[in-house]
Structures are given as structure tokens and as C-alpha cells.
Design goal:
137 residues
């Protein structure tokens, strides 16, 4: 019974919601946020255990907040509300960037390890700002 429910749930991912509306999962910006979150979780796996409740936790929380706010905003009724949640996601992205800079500077991670994550942060930042500008017009 549980297996059947899980399978149905997975089959529904990425499909249009009732009424033909797109799901937040279909949004490219949300998908990139999820990808960034995966990168952050993979990066922090190698942090020293003493950082579990420090930068590890902060980086993971900030990265999770980004796609969560994109999804929440997409589910709101008005364009203005969606823009507001995108702005919140952008704030979380900048918070994440700060945590990553600190992790690099205190030698929790090498430049080589963190470079792809910084690249994704920069790209997602451009996407969010561009989306905000398009919706605000």
C-alpha cells in the first residue's frame, strides 16, 4: 500500500497540476535551486564534524530556503507576491554566498571544491534577478 502511494506521488512529479497549470517543479529557476541545494549538501559532507551545527547547518538551511521560497511564491495568487518570494530567495542566496566565502576562507573547503558551487550561485542569482525584472514590468 505504501509503495503504491509513493509510486503515484513520483509519477505526478513534473506534470501539470489540475486545470492545466504548471507545477513549481516545472519551473527552470526552481530546478536550478534544487541543483544548488544538492551541490551544497554534497560539499558540506566533507566539512569537519565540529561544524555540523555551525557552517554546515547554515549552508544547508540557506540552500534549502532558496527553492522553497521560489515554490511558495509560485503558489501565490498574485504576481506581486511571487516577486516578493523571489526577493526572499535572492536574499537567501546572498546569505548562502556569504557562508560559502567564510567556509573557503577558514579552510573548510578548497577553492577547487567550492568553485562549481560559486558558479551555480552566480548563475542562479542572474536567473532570479532576471525573473524579478521581467515580472516587475
Amino acid at each position: 500500500m505504501k509503495e503504491e502511494g509513493r509510486r503515484k506521488k513520483e509519477e505526478g512529479r513534473g506534470k501539470k497540476e489540475e486545470g492545466g497549470l504548471m507545477s513549481h517543479r516545472d519551473q527552470y529557476i526552481w530546478q536550478r535551486g534544487i541543483y544548488l541545494c544538492e551541490l551544497c549538501y554534497n560539499l558540506t559532507k566533507f566539512f569537519h564534524p565540529s561544524e555540523l551545527y555551525g557552517l554546515t547547518s547554515q549552508i544547508r538551511r540557506a540552500s534549502v530556503s532558496i527553492p522553497a521560497n521560489i515554490a511558495e511564491g509560485y503558489g501565490r495568487v498574485s504576481r506581486k507576491e511571487y516577486v516578493r518570494y523571489l526577493q526572499i530567495a535572492l536574499g537567501s542566496l546572498r546569505e548562502l554566498d556569504t557562508h560559502l566565502v567564510i567556509a573557503e576562507r577558514v579552510a573548510l573547503v578548497s577553492q577547487q571544491q567550492i568553485s562549481p558551487v560559486f558558479k551555480e550561485v552566480d548563475e542562479l542569482s542572474r536567473l532570479i534577478v532576471s525573473t524579478i525584472n521581467k515580472l516587475a514590468d
